[in-house]
Amino acid sequence: MTDAELAAHLAEVAGKILLEVRGSGVFQGKSLGKAGDETANQFLVHALREQRPEDGLLSEESKDTDERLAKSRVWIVDPVDGTREYGEERADWAVHVALCIDGRPEIGAVALPGLGLVLRTDTPAAVPDAAGTPRMVVSRTRPAAEAVSVAETIGAELVGMGSAGAKAMAVVRGEAEIYLHTGGQYEWDSAAPAAVALAHGLHASRIDGSPLTYNQRDTYMPDLLICRTEWAERVLEEVARLG
C-alpha cells in the first residue's frame, strides 16, 4: 500500500469508527467528542506504528515527543477535526491524515465522514468553476476579524462552517473560493488539508505568503490561507494592508 493509499484508507476507516461511536447512543455532547477523539486516535496511532514504524508521528490527541524532530518523514494526524461539530451531530467535521516530508505537506487525506467523502492527494479531481461573487469560509461561531475585513474589501460572501478541514475542503470541492484563517491553529489542523489543496492545484500558505512548514518543535501555526490561485495575490495584499 502506498503512502497515499494508506493515508486515505486510515482516514476513511477512522471516519467509519467515529460514526459508529456516535451512532451507538452511549455518548452525548462533550462526552461524545471525548470518546470519538480517544477511539479514533487509538486506531490511527496503532495503525501508523504498525504500517510505518520508522516514521515520525504527531497527533493532536497523543503526548508529543522530540523523537519526530530527527525524522524526514512524519505523519501528522487529527483524529477529529471539529470535535464540537462531531459532538453536535453535524456534518462539518473531518479526519486528517498527512505525511510531511522534510517539513512539506506532500501526501494526505481528509475524510468528511458526515458526507461520505474522502479527498486525497493521489486522486485529485478538477476543481469546479469559481462563482461570480467569491465565497469565503469562516468559523461559524467566531469568524476572525481579519477575514471579515478582507471579505468586505474584496466583496466576498461569508460562509460559516465548522472544522478547518471542512472549510479547506469546501474550497477543493468548489463550494467556496477562499479560506482565510487567523485565529490560531496547530500543525494537525492544516497539514492534511494543505496537502490535499496543493495536490488539487490550489494555493496554500501562511498569511504572509510564506510556505507552510511542518514538523517544528513548536507545533503552533496560527494562520493559514487556502484559496484558488487567482485570489491568492489579492487576499495576501489585503492581509498585509491590514498589518
TrEMBL record:
The keyword Secreted does not apply. Its EC number is 3.1.3.7. It is an enzyme of class 3 (hydrolase). Pfam families: Inositol_P (PF00459). The keyword Magnesium applies. Mg(2+) binds at E60, D78, D81, D189. GO terms for biological process: 3'-phosphoadenosine 5'-phosphosulfate metabolic process; sulfate assimilation. It comes from the Bacteria. Keywords: Hydrolase, Magnesium, Metal-binding. Its cofactor is Mg(2+). One of its GO terms (molecular function) is metal ion binding. InterPro entries: CysQ/Inositol_MonoPase, Inositol_monophosphatase-like. This is 3'(2'), 5'-bisphosphate nucleotidase. The lineage of its organism: Bacteria, Pseudomonadati, Pseudomonadota, Alphaproteobacteria, Sphingomonadales.
